[in-house]
C-alpha cells in the first residue's frame, strides 16, 4: 500500500473542517451565523433569478423584433417564413 501525503492531508483537512462545522452548528453563536449566511445566500439566489428573468425577457423581445424585421424585409410580397431555413 502506498502512503500518499497529499491524500492524507486532504483527509485530515476534511476531518478538521467537519469537526469545525459541527462545533459551529451546535453552538448558539455559530448557529446564528450559519442562519445568517444561509439567509444571505437565499437572497442572492432570488436576486440572480430575478436578474436572469429580466435578461430572458429582454432577449425574447430582441428575438421577436428581429423576426418581425426579417418578415417585413422581403420585397417580393411573399409570406416567406425565415425560421424554416
Give a written overview of the molecule.
The chain has 2 helices and no strands. The chain is mainly alpha-helical and 85 residues long. It has one domain (5-70). The N and C termini lie far apart (62 Å).
The overall pLDDT average reads: 85
Q: Determine Rg (CA atoms, Å).
A: 28 Å
Q: Give the termini distance in whole angstroms.
A: 62 Å
How would you classify the quaternary structure?
single chain
Low-confidence stretches: none
Structural domains: how many: 1
The percent range for helix content is over 70%
What is the string of helix and strand elements?
HH
Number of helices: 2
User: Total number of β-strand segments?
Assistant: 0
Shape: elongated
Could you describe the largest sheet, including whether it forms a barrel? none
DSSP strand (E) fraction?
Answer: under 5%
Q: How would you classify the helix and strand content by structural class?
A: mainly alpha
Summary of the model, kept short:
The chain is mainly alpha-helical. The chain has two helices and no strands.
Keywords for this entry:
single chain, 85 residues, mainly alpha, 79% helix
Would you spell out the secondary-structure blueprint of this structure?
Elements: H1 5-26, H2 28-72
